[in-house]
Amino acid sequence: MIIDDSLDKIAADVAICRLCRLFRTRTNAVPGEGSSLVKAVLIGEAPGRSEDEQGRPFVGKAGKILDYVLRETGINRSQIFITNLVKCRPPGNRIPTVDEVTTCRMYLDREFAFLRPKIIGLLGRTAYSTFIGGDGFSSDRGRILKKNGQTYLITFHPAAAIYNKSLIESLKSDFTKMSSEFGL
Ligand code: SF4
After folding, report:
1. What is the CATH number of domain 7-182?
2. Residue of 9, 20, 27 with the most ligand 1 atoms within 8 Å of its CB, for mutation
3. Where in the chain are the domains?
4. What pTM did the predictor assign?
5. Cβ–Cβ < 8 Å for 149, 133
6. Position 2 pLDDT exceeds 60
7. Is 106 in the pocket of ligand 1 (CB under 6 A)?
8. Whose CA is closest to 49, among 91, 84, 11?
9. Rg of the chain over all Cα atoms, to the nearest angstrom
């Protein structure tokens, strides 16, 4: 266990990490981003092209949808911490492999240990299957559920709404539920 950790230390370690194959193809590693005083953490799958170029999470098309949904539901981006299962972009935006997610998990665990979030928003199927397990994403989407003492919101990845705009209303509904139940 790392004591006296900080978000800056975690970000610095991520920036130089070479623990899995994804370091070979990244431009920049993308650590989580947000205040140290948040109640909610949102977890996506992996950085995309824009995130890889800028070294920041959710700054591309999916990030714009996320910003819109947050704005529409009255949640300030400073009220949440945004991160990904893996901190480096998989080539061609493929889904990260289980061993890549497992290797990178220690950074997520350090972020959680530091932030102690009241709720974790799992954005999309890959985050869902990593934390909840199984293939019940469709039936669980929109629910707030507990596993091993941690509370999770199950919702879509904003990238899914790029080509299916109807999902934006579902995202707004899910984020409104999270906001009202957790006082964001
Ligand atoms: S994806 Fe995670 S484990 Fe792999 S190189 Fe990047 S920071 Fe390290």
Report:
1. 3.40.470.10
2. 20
3. 7-182
4. 0.95
5. no
6. no
7. no
8. 91
9. 15
